Structures are given as structure tokens and as C-alpha cells.
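Anyone able to model this chain together with protoporphyrin IX containing FE?
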Amino acid sequence: MAKMHKRHDKSDILIHWFNAVCWVLLLLTGVGLIQNPAIDPFGSGYPEAMRSLVGGGGNLLAIHEGIGLVWIAGFILYLIVNFRGARFFLAEVFSVSPARDMGWMLKKMVLMTLGPKPLKAMGMDPELPAQGFYNMGQKAFAQVSVAGGVVIAVTGVIMYLSDRTFGAEATGWVSWSIALHFIAVGLVFAGLLVHIYMAAISPEERPGFKSMFTGAVPDDYAKHHHRLWWEKAETEGEQPTE
Ligand code: HEM
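re: yes, here you go
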């Protein structure tokens, strides 16, 4: 059997798929709450159908809020269960080495769209700079989804409470929350399209996809895609994800 490297703890895998399911449900219910013919992403038939499915707009809002609160509770639980893993994840995704990582990002985009020729023509080595536990593309998406997630959760809670406790003096806060909630969802969603393509469809990343179920990747995949992490694991042993 090929040598494997542990990449994700069970709780990491669980929170990832819990988050993905919540996102799908929150998007489906959230988009159904938008009833403005000028901006309906799926046309006005969709919000109507969603509302009649659950017995009206009030119920749809209650379901959206309920899933949102469960989503937040899931993350709080994860932080309690695996604080070390969360700290490792945040330290990894927010540490950027500008020369190495920007070089990786630029080359990766050229390689994926035009191939190695333009890089060679410019006298550049098409080989990608070595990456750590996450590559710069994964880090960029993780940064957007962490920051976006916090904005979505905080603004969501403000809107939730505004229906119940806040008075008229909070109108400014609530308007800002609505705008920021939309902007953050839009940004994370844009990244999500690339994330799903890279993680689940691109054949190169298939071992990474499998690791989101099994928790481990083969040695050669770790060596070629995450060289700095692989070197560290070889010299210092595996790093904690739990
Ligand atoms: C349903 C579709 C999804 C699929 C198929 C998917 C797949 C994956 C896979 C395979 C990985 C592991 C990559 C690795 O270890 O190298 C991963 C990691 C990750 N996923 Fe997802 N994911 C999905 C949805 C989401 C959603 C909705 C979010 C957040 C909004 C998200 C956020 C992340 C983050 C932050 C990571 C770690 C960094 C990264 O590898 O990009 N994922 N995902």
C-alpha cells in the first residue's frame, strides 16, 4: 500500500461537508427570499415556487434563519471540539509569502488558460513555486470564505434580531447588514464556483477530493502539490490537524 499523509481530521471533514450542505440550503432558501423582478437570479417563478412550497414567505424566512443559526452553532461546536485544528487552518491560510505565492498564482493562471508556452517565451520557468499545506489558490478562497462567513453570520444575526428586539434607531445598522450580507455571499459564491471546479472536477486534484472523505493523501501527491508541507512532514513528522 502506498505511503499516505494525514491531511484532515474527522472533525475537519465533518465541518467541511456540514458547511457545504448548509451553504446549499441557505442559498436555495435565501435566493427564494429575494422578490425583486430586477434582480431575481432565477426569474420571478423561483421565489414564488419556493414560497408556495413552504407555505409562504414568512415560513421561508423562518427556515432560512433556522438553518443560519444551526450553521453558526455547528462552527461554535467545531471550535470547541478541535480548536487546535482551527488554529492550524487559520495560521496556514493567512500566511502568505508574497514572492513565492504571487508567482504561483500568476503562473497557475497562465498554465491553466494558455499553457506553458507564453511563460517559456518570456524566459520564465513554467515550474510552479513549491507550496505549503495549501496552495495560494486554496488560501485565497479560504481567506474569502472565512472573512465572508464571519460577515454573513454577524449581519445575519443583526437582521434576525432586528425583527425581534431592535427599535427604529437601528435602521442604519440593519440596512448596512442587508447590503454587506449580499456582498459577502456574492464574493464567497464567486470563489465557490472555482473551488468546486478545482476540488471536485479537475482530475489533477482527485487525491485532494478523496482526502475530504478519507482524511489522507498519497505521498507522491503531497510531494508534487504541497512540497513544503511534504518536506516538513518528512523531516519533522506529521503536523497536527487535531
Ligand atoms: C459542494 C461542493 C464542495 C466540494 C466538492 C468541496 C470540495 C473540497 C475539497 C476536496 C477540499 C480539500 C482540498 C485539499 O485538502 O487539498 C476542500 C477544502 C476546502 N473547502 Fe470545500 N468543497 C465544497 C464546498 C465548500 C463550501 C460551500 C465552502 C465554503 C463556503 C468550502 C470551503 C472549503 C475550504 C475553506 C477548504 C480548505 C481550503 C481549500 O482547500 O480550498 N467548500 N473542499
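The mean pLDDT is 92.
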